[in-house]
Specification:
- By secondary structure, this protein is an alpha+beta fold.
- 21% of the residues lie in helices and 39% in strands.
- The protein contains 4 helices and 13 strands.
- The longest helix is centred in the C-terminal third of the chain and has 21 residues.
Amino acid sequence: MTSPLPSLLAGLPPVAARARSAARLPGKTYLRRLTLVGGLLLLAPVANAAIIYSVAPPSPWQLSTLKGLGGGWSQDREYTDVSIGAWLIGHAGATGRAFVTTLAGPGASPDAEVAVTAIQLDRVMEISFVELFAGLTLPAGTYYLTIQGSAPGGGRLDWRASGVVNATVLTTAVGVSDLGYAYAERLHAYPPAGLIVSGSPNGLAMVVTGTPAVVPEPSGFLLTLAALPLLAGYRVLKALRL
């Protein structure tokens, strides 16, 4: 005998027919979880520039850079988009050079140089923050910022520093250490090589910022991939609404 079920199902109204199809779809709890996963992927943190190494002397003392001054740090990971600056003060006409090297002292040479830039003051400058370098990529290692200023026409270029009785405020990222203050006793043809690393904490006002290279920013493909669960979840949940 032929079963009457097919003919009865064929006569069901559209809403009931949709209910039969929906019964084979994943449960709402599962779909909500799938949608949540997609949302979390879209909200995944993106690495932003942060302080790698910062020295902030609390007093407005200043030291001449005529023979050369420097400060160093070490880092255990690579940073990209690195910016390096210092608080300087100078007279109109003062000039100088700033170096970023992986060594300081007698072993330093242009082979250890990461970047170099010229400093030129066209007017008298109060103590101000000057960005010296930007867009650098620094792998894990040791680094020194050296500034050496000349004094044409009596102008001088000074670097803000900590006084003897003042405590320097040092801020470092995880895995970053202070390598101390460095100074020169005489002029040297290559200023970083003339530095003497004192072993004392760095008291020269400077800041290094950058983005850890180990946290990549999501690409357009990953963002699209993360959005797929959201779209799929929305469509299925819409189909389940009877």
